[in-house]
Amino acid sequence: MAPFDLQALIGNSGSYFLYLAIGFGFGFILESSGFGDARRLAAQFYFRELRVIKVMFTAIVVAMTLIFWSTALGLLDYDEIWVNPTYLWPGIVGGLIMGLGFIMGGYCPGTSLVSMVTLKLDGMFFALGMVTGILAFGETVGYFNAFWHSGAMGRFTLPEFLHLETGWVVFLVVCMALVMFVGFEWIRGAIYGKAK
Q1: How high is the mean pLDDT in each 10-residue block of the chain (196 residues)?
Q2: Distance between CA atoms of 182 and 105, rounded to whole angstroms?
Q3: Measured in whole angstroms, how far is the alpha carbon of residue 81 from the centre of its chain?
Q4: Which of 49, 55, 71, 87 could lock 43 by a disulfide, CB 3.0 to 4.6 Å apart?
């Protein structure tokens, strides 16, 4: 039953190689999909380009559905999957900071690395800024440690938040993604006219 202990199956070197291959494949797909272009990424906030939103929600829906059915069929032990614990207030502030940086710079952390690897100058500066921010955070987190751990909710997921069975949440998220796909296309069309 998944998840599997890769180090036991293929050893340390094999598992590191697999992680590297997955990362390379992920970056290659991002770049070939146009996600290494800051103008294309930032255009989603103006409803000019909806590719990022569609890809992200498709990934969420596919992963959620696969995890749900794999668990339901006994192929996956969900309790063995790491889910980041929720810290509500720092999560909200961090989301706002990242969103603002995304709008201003046109990249999220992953796409900035893709852009940097493909030798785009703006991606290099964005990645440098990201590393600088990480180092600055690491050196100063002691000053706001209480806030950093505020709003602790443990492993808190949508079914718990909505007080619904997991299957219903999966169904509702799939429906929401479909409505958003259609709705965002309608908004884009209303603002910019029909796509050629």
Answers
A1: 84 92 90 86 85 86 94 92 92 92 87 91 92 93 92 92 94 93 88 71
A2: 27
A3: 17
A4: 49
